[in-house]
Amino acid sequence: MTATETSPSETGDVEAGINALWRQFARAPEQRLRDRLVLHYAPLVKYVAGRVGTGLPTHVDVGDLVQSGIFGLVDAIEKFEPERGLRFETYAMQRIRGAILDDLRSQDWVPRVVRSRAREAERAMERLGARLNRTPTDAELAAELEISVDDLRDLYGQLQLTSVVALEDLVAVGKDSGSLVDTLPDDDAVDPVAVLVDQDNRRQLAEAIAQLTERDRIVVSLYYFESLTLAEIGKVLGVTESRVSQLHTRAVLRLRAKLVEQAGV
Length: 265
Fold this sequence. Notes:
mainly alpha; RNA polymerase sigma factor; transcription
């Protein structure tokens, strides 16, 4: 065994130590205990920040995303309720991602013209979806926007800035609340269906995803549920990372349009 490898017994010792630390923190939430938990789970922040940072403008520093994510991690540690049965990693990654996205939104880092074009594309998808009773193709959407398909794909490239959103933002369209943590099941949870899952939100999200094209469904599944990067998805689909970014943007816009339609807003 090399110096960098960890034996099963060592892994078990680490897990037992973290469980003991959680119990101590639950009894007495002292800062020193919280800081030890932050240090242990810090790699989660780097991972989430790296994924969120994919496709962002070059002036957005991943280090800044990590800093924002740390606040999300601290918030997750302080608010985590182990008795609910959800794995902490699952809960924390959503809090970390949310903190990063909140910070990005507060900086108003998306140009106004890009936001305007995103709304225009979403409204066009809503109109076409209502008329056709299905998800419009790129050619149909381009015709509705009175641009070429190539121009539409260039537009997707610009709109990728607006598509860096958590799925809870999509679920919450037209609702007062709707966290992904509360709408998607956790396989390791004690009783996720009874305790955590909002069936109506899950149903609407599932229906919206089912109406995507097969390739868009694959992108959404691999990116949000299998945690693959855009580059890794590109290898799976046999296309460039840039093309995957376009597909991801298109999928998010289509999901938003479908959920807005379902919510009647």
